[in-house]
Amino acid sequence: xxxxxxxxAQERLEAAAATRVAPADxxxxxxxxxxxxxxxxxxxxxxEASLPGRVGDAVHDGIRAEVLPVARHIAEVRGLMTQLIRxxxxxxxxxxxxxxxxxxxxxxxxxLIAAGFKGLDQRLARIEARLDxxxxxxxxxxxS
Length: 144
What we know:
2 helices
């Protein structure tokens, strides 16, 4: 083997050994990582203990803030519906009274027409009687 190749291999091994991390540095980094993981676990346990209560309070506050306006809207709609029902009932009563009045008007109109035809019938009977008495002509009844 060549001496120069051996020297280059030796230099590479020394360079690799120089860039290698010291075991003390690795231990220190692992110790810091363990401390940080322990702190993270403690924070997670604290959040796990307090989070449900805080979330419940936030949900309760949010619902209260949203439900009060909705309850007011529902009460307003209920009042408007009650007013609408009263108005519809009033219209129904007025319509029924109007219908009865129209039926009564129709009855009066039928009575007037019947009385008019009776009067006309009596008049025609008198005219026929006079014609019979005056000239002795034949009066034919109208076909109905």
